[in-house]
Amino acid sequence: MVDFLDNLLKSALAFPPDRELGIERAHRALVPKPNNPQAKPRSIVVKFGSYRTKEEVIRRAWQKKEVFCNDARFYVDHDFPPEVLKRRGEYAEAKKVLKEKRIKFQTPYPARMRVFYDDGTRLYQDTTEATRDMVSRGFSVSVVKSPTTTDQEEIALLSTWQMAGRRRERGGDRESGAADGCTQFKKTARSQYKEKLQKFRK
């Protein structure tokens, strides 16, 4: 799998043949294997040894827009947790409208959206804030319902600054709130992984 992906990415993304991509491991997504030969193949999760290499691979794929393997198109993107993917997907209608209006936007991690309007840049923290403001600006979009408290907490725990926590001025220990949050997130992620693995083995 590693050798296959190394050759595929170098060929599809125009890397020099002698470039070391540093793929440490790769495996199929932990979902049941489809029985239908015509079904969409499972995603492949890749672990790079270098963050910069991973970002370069993704950037090249995005710049190329269409990447193929044996005439079949495939996509390269970040491996976001399910909670983040769900929230990012809620921007679909808003992004479609912005693209039609040729308004530049970005979707920073974990599930925010930055829009570059003519009158200035706005950074929305969630889809509800984004769609409400877009409606007030005259865009034809549906206002997305606010996420539940549980979903908001899970997304917040995935934010880098909250997971890292803050250190006290004395003693160098992390504050208890941040530590408890990290522990809760680790337990949630571990239980989700076990559940997926059990389904995969069935």
UniProtKB/TrEMBL annotation:
Entry coiled-coil feature ranges: none
Region (Disordered): 164-202
Biased composition (Basic and acidic residues): 192-202
Origin superkingdom: Eukaryota
InterPro entries to which the protein is assigned, alphabetical: L1_C, Transposase_22
Transmembrane parts of this sequence: none
Protein name in the entry: LINE-1 type transposase domain-containing protein 1
Species lineage: Eukaryota, Metazoa, Chordata, Craniata, Vertebrata
